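Illustration: histidine kinase.
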Amino acid sequence: MPTRAVRWFRALTAPYRRSIQLKLILTMIVLSVLPVIAVTVLAAEKSRASMETEVAETNMSNMKWTGIYISDQLDRLNHLIYSIQISPDLSDYLNEREPDNLSSQFNAQRKMLNTMANVYYSAGSHVIGIQLYLKQSQTLFTFNSMQNEITTVSGIPPQYAEMWQANKDYSIRPSSADPERFTLTRSIRRFEDQKQTGAISLDVLWSQFDQTLGLLGRGDQHQVLITDADGRVMYPAQARQSPPPAGVLTALRDVKPGPGVIQTAEHYVFYNDLDVVGLKLVKIVPTSSINHSAFSTMLYGIIVGVISILVSICIAVFIAWRTARPIVHLARSVQELDMIKGPIGQPSTRPDEIGLLERSLHGMAGRIREHIQAEYSINLQKKTAELKALQAQIHPHFLQNTLQMIGSMVFSQKPEDTYEVIRSLSEMFRYVVREPQNLASLRAELDHVGHYMRIQQRRFPQRLVFQVESEEQAMDIRLPKLSLQPLLENAFQHGLDRKAGAWQMGIRVEIMKQDVCITVCDNGNGMAPDKLEKLRAKLENASEEPIWAQGSHIGLSNVSSRIRMNFGVHYGVTIDSEQGVGTRVTICIPFTSAEEGKV
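Result:
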């Protein structure tokens, strides 16, 4: 073991023995940093410890009193429910013995609604609704600012059935429609046999607790929450503040009843139970906010340290000036290295470590340059071949259908109509087989698409409607060639082919700040949600496998990959679709002029 330790020590100290630069840096660090570390650590630790004790005691006291105040507010809501439960009008309604007497039944119902109205208007602005469910008569009373009605329901409403199945008489549930509200529910039991005969619920705004929660001194970095017994956040909603740190709410499930505190590496978590209701009041304080208060003490140590560092730097500069000339020579040699082209100079003949480094850089630069040139040449040839192959693609079915249509038009249509179709097909071929360019203007792409759609409109004259909406400023932007026609072909093949009735397709070009969005939409059959999610995942991953591709057809994945290759991962193709409504495919590219987009 001693021999091995010696070898480790020699291996670690060997660089310092061979380099005067490292010796100088190490000496400067020791002289300047160690006093700063010693003073700062001692002062910060003492300040942090005292601040931690003070924060813990203050927050524990605040949590205790805040919990009492919130419990009192919940008790007042309970009293509102009790006032309905013990009201004579509810007893009269439950004891009504003549269900066929409509007049008597109507009076009992009106009295019950009047009782709920009295409770509603006396509860204050935070109670926004009251609901009473009676199991025997299957009657649901609802009273709020928007409705005042009595309905007969079939079966027990889900919120009450779930509570009774769990054998609970009291529950607080967050509102699924509005995270700023919760529902307080209490069962009604018959006195004689304690059977559940109904339930009363209050629809309450969480904001009634805001003033009370303000007693906890919520800051920008502090989080104050109300959770249920399982650690789920009840209030406030995540939209109002960031989610709590991972693991904090899970740890609260195992704590003992009553107030307490959990300390983690990054947070202090204070908690307290809210009486009766099974909720917890939680406050999360970052450790950094406590340490920040010790900064004033640390400031004096920093000032002393800065002075020491400045003195050490002055001494080190003089020494380094005498010894830095070889390093300057090395830096100039590195600047002369050219990894792509041109000579890289002659290697140094110095015998010391600087000469060794220069010779190593010289050899490495030569190998890297050869590798870059080889890779660049291979990738350039591959990219050129792929683009030429893509531009030679025309869907064979489209070509076959077009030629058949031209043949039938020769005998049934005017010569000028037949010439228009032949000219459009010719222009399409001219655009496809023309000397390939990586990028084309939007104007040229829209002209190409226009020829394609004129042919399709001749094939489906009574069904197809096509429109283009574009801003003139966007017509000269550059995008990968043959980016729009695949989107239209996919719309015909997968959206409109089996759709009855009129077909509507359109292209909209919009300038949005620094980007341009080109949207192709149709009113076709759309896609199922699961198929849409799979397609989005493939587009996001820019898979090499073509999407919606048959034969030589260019797929959406191909279009998305070429856009990302030219403009970066922040751009590409997105798709939205609703089954039975239609599909929208959007291409997003940067807003660049024709000159800027040339490659």
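Reading the tokens back as a structure: The first helix runs from residue 2 to 18.
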